[in-house]
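Design a sequence for this backbone.
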């Protein structure tokens, strides 16, 4: 549940070494999709499909960050960010000059560059060769990691190999609501994504020996709607398909036995080859946790088909969480973030963690040059309080990245959902820091709430 405003600014201090950041993704902000040698991505292709994106929106111009990057970096500096998480567009691999300039500008402002190598924008030529359904794509990704690492590795502070492979696999290959819009085996895609991560880790270590190497997962706290055995088992199933299917191979070198058994009606796991899991579980320095909402689930009285991306044979029902919701309809519950951070530490050991994404969409408008967004401030306050509670419980949490720096192209929702700390006028790309940006600036100055 949201933390009441009366509990605001109660003197919660974060470690002096804490990374205070904001995050973005290339396709969502850059635009310039045909400039300087960029080739088409699966999101260019998907967005051109009638009905795929709300209002027929595309990322063709996005927020024009490709041309306005210098002003955006200055804006980050004015907010006091000491870290910025961005993604390197694989379709720009032939010309990385833009990222050279961006990284240098960040460092000049005292902002740590945090680079994500894959935030869903697979080059269309790789998709045409089979995409994540093709094992070879993992090796192509390792080559991409080598190119980017050789160019930026002397300056990047942290690498995230992949962002939210669950979305790529289950939304892109399971129910087809994200690019590439397939409905095939999401488990094959998930495995090849993890293999790509594992192959890229030693490449990045060689190119960037002083950097932190990790991955960003959309981890979620899954709770049963009652304590009945059937509902508890339903929560176990969803937790396996959302969380443990990624955490276990990465940190334990194996897929969970119960997940393999649960999914036997949908896949035979024959795509897992000898030594794959040893590659996937290459030691990493940190895990990024992207958190937005919890899940409340129960057993289905009879098989249901509610469009869920989780392959459960219709045995699980998702229930509404009794809490306020964001403009996305997502429940606001900071306790889910605290519980997830504690759970990762308890289950997998004291690995360093970063909240690599956390934020909320609300309906924002500019009035007399100001964007008043008290709901977002309450959201951020509540989740930072939860993050502090996790630190107090022994979690080695080292940083927090608000999603997102800018309003942007919100994937299948187009431009209709605004997550940014900074408002973007899509008519002229004018930037207006929202009240939440100024509030976050003050939090950073104080080093806490």
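Sequence:
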């Amino acid at each position: 549940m949201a933390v009441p405003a009366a509990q605001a600014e109660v003197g919660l201090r974060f470690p002096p070494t804490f990374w205070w950041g904001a995050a973005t993704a290339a396709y969502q902000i850059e635009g310039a999709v045909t400039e300087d040698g960029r080739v088409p991505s699966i999101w260019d292709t998907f967005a051109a499909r009638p009905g795929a994106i709300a209002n027929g929106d595309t990322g063709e111009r996005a927020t024009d960050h490709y041309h306005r990057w210098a002003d955006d970096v200055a804006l980050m500096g004015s907010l006091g960010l000491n870290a910025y998480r961005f993604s390197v567009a694989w379709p720009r691999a032939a010309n990385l000059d833009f990222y050279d300039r961006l990284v240098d500008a960040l460092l000049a402002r005292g902002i740590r560059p945090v680079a994500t190598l894959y935030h869903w924008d697979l080059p269309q030529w790789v998709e045409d060769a089979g995409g994540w359904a093709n094992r070879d794509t993992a090796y192509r990704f390792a080559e991409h990691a080598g190119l980017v690492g050789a160019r930026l590795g002397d300056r990047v502070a942290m690498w995230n190999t992949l962002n939210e492979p669950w979305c790529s696999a289950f939304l892109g290959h399971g129910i087809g609501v994200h690019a590439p819009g397939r409905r095939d085996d999401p488990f094959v895609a998930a495995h090849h994504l993890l293999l790509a991560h594992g192959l890229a880790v030693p490449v990045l270590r060689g190119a960037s020996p002083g950097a932190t190497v990790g991955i960003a997962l959309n981890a979620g706290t899954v709770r049963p709607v009652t304590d009945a055995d059937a509902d508890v088992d339903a929560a176990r199933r969803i937790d396996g398909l959302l969380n443990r299917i990624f955490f276990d191979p990465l940190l334990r070198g194996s897929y969970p036995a119960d997940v393999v058994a649960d999914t036997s009606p949908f896949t035979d796991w024959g795509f897992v080859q000898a030594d794959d899991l040893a590659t996937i579980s290459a030691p990493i320095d940190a895990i990024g946790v992207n958190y937005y909402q919890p899940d409340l689930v129960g057993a289905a009285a009879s098989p249901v088909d509610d469009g869920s991306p989780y392959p459960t044979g219709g045995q699980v029902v998702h229930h509404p969480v009794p809490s306020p919701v964001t403009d996305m309809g997502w429940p606001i519950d900071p306790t889910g973030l605290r519980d997830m951070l504690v759970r990762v530490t308890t289950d997998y050991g004291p690995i360093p963690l970063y909240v690599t994404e956390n934020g909320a969409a609300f309906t924002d408008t500019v009035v007399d040059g100001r964007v008043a967004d008290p709901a977002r401030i309450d959201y951020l306050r509540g989740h930072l309080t939860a993050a502090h509670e996790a630190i107090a419980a022994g979690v080695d949490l080292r940083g927090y990245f608000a999603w997102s720096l800018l309003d942007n192209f919100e994937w299948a929702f187009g431009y209709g959902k605004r997550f940014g700390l900074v408002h973007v006028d899509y008519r002229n790309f004018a930037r207006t820091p929202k009240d939440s940006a100024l509030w976050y600036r003050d939090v950073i100055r104080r080093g806490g709430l």
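Residues 1-9 have pLDDT under 50 and may be disordered.
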